[in-house]
Structure formats: C-alpha cells, structure tokens
From TrEMBL:
Residue ranges of the TM segments: 51-71, 77-104, 129-152, 158-179, 186-208, 228-250, 262-283, 303-329, 350-371, 377-399, 419-439
Protein's cellular compartments: Membrane
GO cellular component, one term: membrane
A Pfam family reported for this protein in Swiss-Prot or TrEMBL: Aa_trans
Record membrane topology: Multi-pass membrane protein
Family the entry assigns: Belongs to the amino acid/polyamine transporter 2 family.
InterPro entries: AA_transpt_TM
The protein's name: Transmembrane amino acid transporter protein-domain-containing protein
Amino acid transporter transmembrane domain location: 50-437
Superkingdom of the source species: Eukaryota
Species for this entry: Rhodofomes roseus
UniProt-annotated stretches for the region Disordered: 1-25
C-alpha cells in the first residue's frame, strides 16, 4: 500500500487544516483500511469511549511513573547543566515525534498498534518485526514495574519477607488490574496514579530539603562514554510512552483530539522531570541514588514508597493492557473483520483475554527476578526499543507520508527532510550506543558483585 496516495504535502494537511481534516479529506478509507473495532453501536463492550483528558491521564501515568524515579540520578551523573538541557531537548523532540504518530494514525485510521504500522511500511515482514518488538518492549516494561514493586515492598517492610514473594504479589496485583477490557475504565486509575507519584516525589523533595545539602553539586561532569550515555538512556526511557499511542488514539471518541492530550503530557512530564531532578540533586548532591524515592531517611522513604505503590502498579497495568490488546486484536481481527468475541461478553473472549494477561505478567515476573537491577534494565530496553518507538520510527513515518517530489520542493520542505532524516539517525545511534553502555554497565556490575543472583530472597530495599 502506498502512503503517498492523496497526501499532497506530507503532513501539509495536518499543518494547514489541523487534525480534523486529515482523515476525511486526505484518506478515504480503502478496502483494507477498516475500523479496528468494527461497528460497536450494538456491541456489549464499547472501546471508542475516551475523551482527550482521559487519554492524557493514561499517557501521563504510563510515561511519568518509572521515568521520574531515575531523573535525579541522571543529574548526578551528567551535572546540572547537561541534565537540564537533555531533559528539555529530548522532551521537545519527543513532542514532535508524538505529533507525527498522531498524523500517521489519522492518515491510516485502521492502525491500532505498531504491527499495523509495520504492515503499511513493509508488508507482512514489517508487521511481524514491529509487532514482536512492541510485545517484547512492553513485557520488559511490565517487568520493570514488577521489579520496582518488589523494591517498594522490601523498603516498606524493611526486608521482612522474601523479595521473590513481593515480586509475585506485585505481578498478581498488576494482573488483576489489567483484566478490564477497555482503556476508558483504566483512565480513572490513571488519575490516582498521577496523584500518587506527584505526592511521593513531593515528600521526597521536602525530605531532602529538610535534611539539607548532603554533597557537592557539579555544573558539568567528566564521565567516560559508557557511563554518560547510560544516564542519557534514563532520560530517553522517561519519554518512552509513544509505544502505546496508537492504541490510545484507537479508543478515543475523537482521534483528532489526540494532540491536546500530547501537549498536556509533554508539558507536564518535562516540568516534573526538571523540578524533581533539580531539587533532589541540589540537596542530595553526590549522594543521589536511583530510584529517586531512596534519597530520604528511612521513615520518609517508606512513606514515599507506600504512596507511590499505586503509580508503580497502575502504570504497569497500562503497559500490560496495551500489550495484551495487541495480541487480542491480532487473534480476533481477520482481514479487517472483527470477531464477535472482541466486543461481546463471550466465554471465548474473556478466557482468551485473561489468558493473554496472565502470560504477560508471568513473563514479566520472571524478567524481574532474572534481571534484578533497576537502571541497567531501563538502559537495555530504552536502547533496543525506545530509541525507535519514541524517536526513529516517526522519521520513517514522515518519509512514508511525504512524496519524493515534495521533500525538496521548498526551503522549508528541505529543512523538514533533513530534520526527519536526523531523527532516524538519532534513533539508530541511541540504539547502538545505549546498548553498548548498558551491557558494559551490567558486565561491570556483575564483575564487582553488585547484583544479587536470580530468584534470591535477599532484600532489595535501598538501605
């Protein structure tokens, strides 16, 4: 399928007429451009029910939860100036690439996930590659939430029980909360998630402020490449919500309103990252640790983790839901026709959905136990997947939507062509350099005996 049909100036209609016109004027739905959920007027389960602020709440809960916990340690590694510059610049680029995902979705209304986008870009091979990548990425994200839940429970209880038990409890809680079939219901949990993480980091900032300056603050840092880039991958991870954008838009009442949710997300998360990073690092200094909630005394640390538990769980639930929905839709959508099991309260539909969710959280639990370290796990998954889903693939989308004849037609078009080509190269560089830095850190960690063995009962609490 050509992405050039009826697109006069790449995202020109997007710019001239706004999101409202894109689908109607640019893209008459072709035979294979079906609506993913079919006609749900008489369906038992209606998916397209979210208004824009609910989508924004989901995006904010998915993105900010674990990302914000690693930001202060990034400032400690890179220095105050580099930390601020990277948070702002990578956040700005993430906004532009998110906007392009919205444009691609409106150009192809049937796209529900990265696998669908891969089908448009490169046929069946593209579908399988991007679909598998999205599933693997999101299962690893779920694993990071199980891991963080384990650390939280261990910290709250002072290691009173086996850490494997806490990891199992975290996975079970997430599994139960993933079972609702639509994102609209989970969006209310997302509001609680956002309040939870903001309250937790506020307590942390107050705690470090009351404790006073604990160490020196550097304006710049002198690091080797591996250490410096590993810190950069933490910022990339903090903006890595793009992988779920197609699914969020697919369940919105008005997909054209996605841009409102995107701007709300990017303004909120960039502001939070800057404030938390600057304040915690300014007081904790060289003693800054990750996750960020570990920078206070033990009492406040337990309180912060207790308050943060909802966001640790709910954000994981959002990732698990998007992953499960991809598999579920793939099973029950054939040649553009949605099976009745997708929208009906049938035994087949519900047992399949629950089985998929169970499989995802079981694998996530295993990942959390086999790879029991925080920053390096974030570094590996950011390097392999977030580099493309958050940055590189949006450049590919732009080139697909923009005819060759238009790319160099005007000075402004030439600037956009160079910019989006740079975004693709940026994604490739982040993947290679970040993977090298993450693997190097893991090797050094094991060499220095810094990590516990797999499936250990040893406490993972931050002392």
């Amino acid at each position: 399928m050509s992405g050039h049909d009826g697109v006069p100036n790449g995202t020109g209609a997007y710019e001239k007429h706004g999101l409202t016109e894109q689908t109607n004027k640019e893209s008459a739905v072709k035979a294979d451009e079906f609506d993913v959920y079919g006609d749900d007027a008489s369906a038992d389960i209606k998916y397209r029910t979210m208004v824009w602020w609910k989508a924004a709440a989901l995006m904010l809960a998915e993105t900010v939860s674990l990302g914000i916990l690693s930001i202060p340690s990034v400032f400690q590694s890179l220095g105050m100036v580099a930390g601020c510059i990277l948070v702002i610049s990578l956040g700005g680029i993430a906004t532009v690439t998110g906007y392009m995902i919205g444009a691609f979705k409106l150009r192809y209304p049937h796209v529900h996930n990265m696998a669908d986008a891969g089908m448009i870009l490169a046929g069946p091979i593209g579908r399988e590659v991007l679909g598998a990548a999205q599933v693997i990425f999101m299962v690893f994200l779920c694993g990071s939430h199980v891991l963080t839940g384990m650390i939280a429970f261990d910290t709250i209880t002072a290691g009173a029980s086996c850490s494997v038990l806490w990891a199992g409890i975290s996975a079970i809680i997430c599994l139960v909360l993933t079972i609702p079939r639509t994102l609209d219901g989970i969006s209310y949990l997302s509001v609680a998630s956002f309040i939870s993480i903001v309250t937790a980091v506020m307590i942390t900032m107050i705690g470090v402020g009351v404790a006073g300056h604990q160490g020196g603050v550097t304006v710049t840092a002198n690091l080797n490449f591996a250490s410096g880039f590993l810190a950069v991958t933490d910022i990339i991870f903090a903006y890595a919500g793009h992988v779920g954008f197609f699914t969020f838009i697919a369940e919105m009442k008005e997909p054209k309103d996605f841009v409102k949710a995107l701007y709300f997300l990017q303004i909120a998360d960039t502001t939070l990252y800057l404030v938390v990073g600057i304040v915690v690092y300014a007081y904790a200094g060289a003693e800054t640790v990750s996750p960020a909630l570990g920078n206070t005394g033990m009492t406040l640390r337990r309180i912060s983790y207790g308050i943060a538990l909802p966001t640790i769980m709910i954000a994981g639930v959002i990732n698990g839901h998007v992953c499960a929905k991809l598999v579920f839709v793939r099973l029950f959508r054939r040649n553009g026709v949605a099976s009745r099991h997708m929208t009906a309260h049938s035994w087949t539909g519900w047992l399949t959905w629950i089985g998929i969710c169970f499989a995802i959280w079981t694998v996530a639990f295993v990942i959390a136990e086999v790879i029991p370290f925080f920053n390096d796990l974030l570094g590996v998954i950011s390097s392999l997947f977030a580099s493309w889903f958050t940055y590189g693939i949006s450049g590919i989308f732009w080139f697909h939507l923009t005819p060759r004849s238009e790319r160099w037609a005007t000075p402004w078009q030439r600037c956009k062509t160079v910019f989006w080509a740079s975004i693709i190269l940026m994604g490739a560089f982040i993947m290679v350099a970040g993977l090298y830095a993450s693997v190097d850190s893991i090797v050094e960690g094991y060499r220095g005996g810094q990590f516990p063995g797999p499936f250990t009962c040893a406490s993972q609490a931050l002392a």
